[in-house]
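User: Quick sanity check before I run a bigger batch. Here is a single chain. Can you write out its predicted 3D structure?
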Amino acid sequence: MKKILISNNKLLQPLYSNLDETVYEKKVMSELKCIDEIKKNNFDLALISPLVYTSVITKGDFRIVPTNMLIMEDYTNSLVINIKQNKESLEKIYFEEINEFMIVAAKLVLSERFNITPVLTNKLDEADIIVSNKKISDTCFDIDLTEDWYDTFEIPMVAGFWIVNNENEENVANAVKLTKEFAGLLHDHEHISDDYDDCYIRTGKKFWCWSEDVRQYLEKIFDILYYHGYSEHIADVKILHETYTSFNEENNENN
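Assistant: Done. Predicted structure follows.
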């Protein structure tokens, strides 16, 4: 039975909503656990975030499958940063759902846009900032995470994509077919809008499939993660069925 690893980001659920658990072993787990399992090569396909990818790419020939994935551009109403008003300081942040990449994304937006650097807390009542899938109160200042990510970094947020070990020929041959099968019927994109007030409409999109633009988005995201200390190196964007030359091979060719 093939083992399918999945990051515990609920936003990614449409990408595997049709996965037959009588045929495949589905393992939804934290991103830290995903990293550990991928480094051990204890998987056949994995649905992961950019943060996981940058943590494992040097441990094997793992490739991004150009297939269904989640890219969020501008306003998507997916995750809301709720900031309590009338606070002397904003020191602690609480996440209703723990997903390492979304935690990093929220902290990057708060730091870059608002110069706020809160520490994590697991106690809701002591939090100054609460990250949820909705606006929790009219007394809070609310920020749409993907909207402010887009405004801050000028690229959409790539939330999750599939990878496969390029050395496993059977999995490589079936990767695109299987990942499309796991998603079932899925539109290429969807438009999201919200009447913020009488004179301003917030709009955005969710994209559910690979396009060549995603390569550039990932390159910049990997740069961002490295620059802010969330990755030990700038990861290469390695796509399935493309040829890459290692640094040593380039030196041998030039000598």
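The longest strand covers residues 200-209.

User: Great, the batch can go ahead then.
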